[in-house]
Amino acid sequence: MLRMGLVIPSLGGRVSEVSSRPMPSRTMIGYSHVSKSFGHLKAVDDASLDIAEGEFLAVVGGSGSGKTTLLRLANRLIEADGGTITVEGEEVRNVDPVALRRRIGYVFQSGGLFPHLSVADNIGITPKLLGVATAEIDARIDELLALVQLDRTAHRDRLPEALSGGQRQRVGVARALAAKPRIVLMDEPFGALDPLTRDALGDDYRALHRSLGLTTVMITHDMTEAILLADRIAVMRGGRMLAQGTPVELSKSDDAYVLELLRTPRRQVERLNALLPQSGAA
Ligand SMILES: Nc1ncnc2c1ncn2[C@@H]1O[C@H](COP(=O)(O)OP(=O)(O)OP(=O)(O)O)[C@@H](O)[C@H]1O
Fold first, then answer.
1. Residue with CA closest to ligand 1 atom 5
2. Given 13, 15, 19, 89, which residue has the most CB atoms within 10 angstroms?
3. From the UniProt record, which GO molecular function terms apply (predicted)?
């Protein structure tokens, strides 16, 4: 696999780097008392959250807790009923939705690729819509394929159906980065992948996030993934923003649901340790 000069940090190195790094303070996305209902259902209920420049924030919570709705409110795929949402200091309701979406990359759970377009055309579609010159788009596609570690010759002209799930997600990330956004929203990007591919993609994306200076908001159902990848975690329940903070801060929460979520990875490890021989003992 191509590495193209990207340093993929070891897990241990990344975790200590995350915990010792001071967070920058400029707010890239700000939610203030935001609400969104569908009929009588409050999908997002009075939620407030600030995401700082350069931050990697994971949003966790049960099915139907409002995570996707929260994400889509930021780029106006859904319009809020109440409260204020800002992106880079501008209220999103004052920004043209199409222009807003070009400033914010979006990675879908299934990759969200156009099935009839090649990998190259999927990646190049936004620059093309923006009127970027063909030669420049071609160079950008190659650069992005290298960034997401897909071999140019092997993958450039393939249709999405001829890719593995992990490769499709890499193309999805490349497409989200094609218009050089500073913010990337990811809706369970690695959820449907096998654990090894998921780990590799998570690590690789985290390295990209850092080297490109991105601000990332990622929905995940996997608390282990949230703890390992994110600087901070926001916990949603029933549309409410239940808690937010670093894993260490959340571990001091007095909310039983938050503590239960945080205990899950450790409980899984304990069960695995009971079932499997300790490493080196096999
Ligand atoms: N367009 C819609 N019309 C009606 N109800 C909706 C719509 N979108 C979301 N909902 C409802 O709003 C609630 C929150 O949905 P949302 O997709 O934000 O949850 P989620 O936390 O992302 O769930 P999951 O983890 O299952 O993807 C759910 O009860 C859902 O059924």
1. 38
2. 15
3. ATP binding; ATP hydrolysis activity
